[in-house]
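Box 3.1. Reading complex inputs
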Amino acid sequence: MIRARMPAFDSLLTRRVVVVTGKGGVGKTSVSAAIGLLAARRGHRTLLCETSGADQICGRFGVPSGVYSVTALSPELSTLSIQPEAAIEEYLLRMLRFRKLYEMVFKNRVMGPFIDAVPGLHDLIQLGKVFDLEREIDPRRRARAWDLVVVDAPATGHGISMLTAPRGMMRLTRSGPFHNNARDVAGLIEDPARTAIVLVSLPEELAVSETTDLYGRLGSFQSQVAGIVLNGVNATALPDDYAALRPALLAGADPAGRHAIDLADGLLRRQGAEDRARASLKRLGPPVVDLPDLEVANLGSPELNRLATCLGCAT
Amino acid sequence: MRHVTPVHICCGAGGVGKTTSSAALALAHARAGARVVVLTIDPARRLADALGVRVGSEPSPVLLPPELGARGTLHALMLDPKETFDRVVSRYAPTAEARDRIYRNHIYEHASANLAGAQEYMAMERLHELAREDRWDCVVLDTPPTHHALDFLAAPERMANLMDEGVMRWIVLPASRGGWRMLERGSEVLAGVLERMVGSSAIADIAEFFTAFQALWDGFRERSVEVRALLSAPTTRFFLVTTPAPAARAEARLFVDQLRAHRQPLAGFFVNRCLTAPSAPGTPHFGPDPQTRGWAEAVAMLSALPERQRVRVAAQEASIAELVEGTAAPVWRIPDLGESVHDLRGIIRVSQYVTEAAATGGAW
C-alpha cells in the first residue's frame, strides 16, 4: 500500500497547544519559534509562549518586548513571555477578586515566601495561563483569539514537572478552587486531541540518551508526543566514494590537504553519530524530523524562517 | 574564624558539558596537589561510571592513572536530593517520632520527591556539609540544570524566609490550638480565604507540616545563614560553562546578568565544543588526478572545507565576543573532542584546557 507522505508536522498544527521540551541547550526556543512560524504560514493564528522568564523570542525577532504582554511578530504570529511572578499575581488576583484582599493575603512577609516555596506552583500557574490563552476570545472577531498556542517549556526534568504539576496540585488540595482549576488545566494538557508534545534532541550520545529517558518518564503523556526533532544536523554531504578515495587523497596531500582530510574525517564521524542518533530516536515510535545546523552566530528571523521551511517539508 | 574551604561552582544551562567541566576542573586541582571533592548532579550514567560514583553515595575516590602524576586526590559523589533531605530531617529531629511524623507528612512527601523544587536547596545543603569537612582543600560543585538559572543561589534565602519566626507564629500556633485562628488583626479573614481556596484538608496538611518541622527550624535557619555566608566568601568562585551555540549563549547571558544581580563575581567562562581554525593556510593540494571516478568531486569538496571551517570559527568567535561582552572574566576554550566525553580519559583531556582556570582560582 502506498501511503501519502504528509509533512510530519502538519497534524501538529491542528491541535490547540503544542508543548516543546527536551534537554537543556538543544534549541527548544528555536524549534518552538520554527513551529510557530510554520503554523502562522499555514494561516493559524499562533501564540508563541516562553516559560523561562526571559524574553528571548522578541530579541530573536528584533522587536521590543512588552512586560507580560502579547507582542505581535507578524499578522498571524504573536509572542508572550509567561513570567511566573506576574502569572501568579494575575491568577491569585482573579481568584480573590479584590486587589486589596490579594495584597492582604499574599503580599505580606509571611505568605510571600510561602508562595515561593510551594513546589510546582510556578509550573502550574504558567500552565494555567496557557489554559486561559487557549480559551481566550477575541471580542472583535468573536472567535477564539488563538488557533494554536506553542509553549517553549522548560528542560527535561522541569518539563515533566510542568506537565504533571496540575495532578500534583490536585493531590495536594483535594478540594476547593485550586483543586478545580488544576483539574481543568489537566483536562486540556492531558487531552491528546488538543495538546501535542514535541521533543527536541541533538545528534549526540548524551542528548539521545536523555531524550530516551525523558520519553520513558513521560508515562501516559507518551501518546501525545507528535514528533521528535533531531536538531543541529550537519548540512554538508560527503561524496559517496570519499571513503574509497581517502587513502589516495591522503598520499598526495600537502599540509593544507591533510588538514582538509582531517576536517572531512570529522564530518564523517559526525554523520555516523547522526545516523546512530536518528536510528535510536526512531525506535521510540514518534516521527523523527531533522533540522539542519545553520552554522551561524545568531538565529534571527531569517534563520528561524529557514528552520520553519525545513519543518514544513520534513516527512 | 573557622577555615573556609574554597568552593568552585560551575553553573550553566543543561547540555553544555557542565558535569564534564566540573569533573575536569576538579581533576586539574587534584593534579596540582589538592585534595578535591566534586559534587555532581544527575550526570549521565556513563560519566558516573567513569568517575566511580554511585547515587546517594558518600564521596568515593576516583582512581587516577599513575602516569598522570597527580599530587592530590579526587573524590566524587552524586547528589540524591531525597536522601539528603531525609538525612537533614533525621539530623535535626529531636526524636525518632518527630522524624517519622515528617517523613509521613503529605506535604513533605510532595516537596522532597519533587526534584524540581528540592534539588537546588539540597545541592546547597550537601555543599555546605562538604565544605565543613576538614579533609578537602577544594569543593567543586556541578550545579543542577535549573529552569530559573540561579535558583540555587536564592534557595537558602528562601528557606530562611520560610523559616521566619513570623511564619511559625502565623501557621503553627493556631494549628496547635486546634483551630485556624490568627494572632494578627484581620487574620481570620485570611484564614477563611485560604481555606476556601485550597480546601481544609490541605490547610490541615500544611499546619501539620509546619508543626512537625517546628523542632527543626533553628537548625534550618542557622544552616541557611551559613550557606549564604559560604556562597559570598571571597574563596568561592563561579565559573560559567557554555558552548558557542546561539541557544546556549543566550542562556549563558542570563546567568551573567543574574550573577551580577547577586553581586557574585564571575571567575571565568568555560566554552565547550570550540572549533579550531585551520592549522595550515593556503589551498589544499592532493597530487595529480589518477583519473579515478569521483576524484575531482572529492577534491572540490575537500578544498571547500578549510574555508568553511574559517567561516564557522569566525561565527564562533563572534558568538564568544557577545557572550563575554561587558565582563572582564577570562575565557577558556575547550576544543570539540568529537563524540561526547564520557570516560576518565576524556575528562583528563578536558582538564588540560582548564589547568589555568584551576590555578587562577587556586586559593588553597
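In summary: DSSP finds 15 helices and eight strands in chain B.
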